[in-house]
Amino acid sequence: MTISIRAQLVTLGLELPAPTSPAANYISVVHTSNLLFISGQISKAPAGEIIAGTLGADISHEQGVQAARIAALNLLGQIASNTDGSLSSVRRIVKLGVFVAATSEFKDHSKVANGASDLMVAVFGEAGQHTRAAIGVSSLPSGAAVEIDAVVELEETRC
Hints:
Protein name: RidA family protein
CATH superfamily: RutC-like
Strand order of the largest sheet: 1-2-5-3-4
Radius of gyration: 15 Å
Shape: globular
CATH class: Alpha Beta
Number of helices: 3
CATH architecture: 2-Layer Sandwich
Keywords: Plasmid
Number of strands: 5
Strand content: 25-35%
Largest sheet: 5 strands, mixed
InterPro entries: Endoribo_LPSP/chorism_mut-like, RutC-like_sf
Helix content: 25-40%
Domain Endoribonuclease L-PSP/chorismate mutase-like: 7-138
């Protein structure tokens, strides 16, 4: 990649958020071998506001996509705080699990999840392509519209 990840974030107009602390009895990140397993990150913007609501009821598709993008940005903040800080040690985004608060009639979970997937590809290029599950749920912590967890492969010598 000819452009650094940090430069790519600036180009995209993004700033990495500070990682959040766990809200219950778990840890945010487990680093084993060259993998990071990142606990669910909700659609909480850096200023603290949460994109909350239920797709198909009280928030729009566009708000859902934005919620997924914000949750994915929070994943990047967790990765940065658990590596060298530059995100350059990321070899590949392996998997995203995207949970969408939605009505039983809502059918566009995968389109909402694209807010996160598109961000990963925009930041990491081909290394941002990943496997994914997009799952509808009746509710999420703090009323968030989206929550995302991840598995990330790191360069073996960089952690």
